[in-house]
Amino acid sequence: MNRPLDLVFVTSADRADRLPDSRVEVAIVGRSNVGKSSLVNALANRRNLARVSNTPGRTRLLNLFALGTDRGADGALPATVMDLTGYVYAKSSKTMRASWGEMIETYLLERQPLAMVVVLVDGEVGPTKLDVQMLDWLRANDLPHTVVATKHDKVKSSKRQRRKRDLADGCDLEPGDVVWVSAAKGTGIDRLRGLLRSWLS
Ligand code: GDP
Predict the structure, then answer these.
(1) Which of 23, 141, 155, 184 has the highest CB neighbour number within 10 Å of its CB?
(2) Between these two residues, 79 and 133, which has the higher pLDDT value?
(3) CA 116 to chain centre
(4) Is the CB of 125 inside a 6 Å radius of any atom of ligand 1?
């Protein structure tokens, strides 16, 4: 049994160079509504750590959480989780989309403690074009990443095997490479807590 992650909200920033130092960081990316807030809350076993909302495209910021807050002599946080809020959809203007893309890219390419990028894919709908673009971009830039498929409970058990294969195929992965979770039912949460702890150690 992996204990809930003791995550505390540290800060939001609109630029990567305004973030506090950390020794090791995991970033979580995914389109709006993929289930990111629900997952972060489930990992921490908290109700409202990350706001659960159905509204796509809410404030686009870099939201930083810390696992433990004892800073070292240099002031760096021991381990952090970066919530990169949802990919932007058609509702926002082209400029917003471009500047958001730039902010994410700068963060992912320049954030020194970044050890793993968790790419959330909606298990109910499968990888979107944007998810695939993100994966291609991470591969092209040699950034370590892991695909986590959300909403496991929303896939009928009779269709799960097929869906697991199709989702992995769509991400150009083997089924065993994808971590399936359900924030609603708790499926896979324990395993993902363990993985996060290992990436953050
Ligand atoms: P975010 O925009 O990525 O932060 O997504 P949210 O966490 O706000 O979730 C989007 C919607 O999906 C909400 O209506 C959630 O209740 C629902 N949702 C999230 N995770 C799960 C899950 O594991 N199972 C089910 N059935 N619904 C989920």
Answers:
(1) 155
(2) 79
(3) 10
(4) no
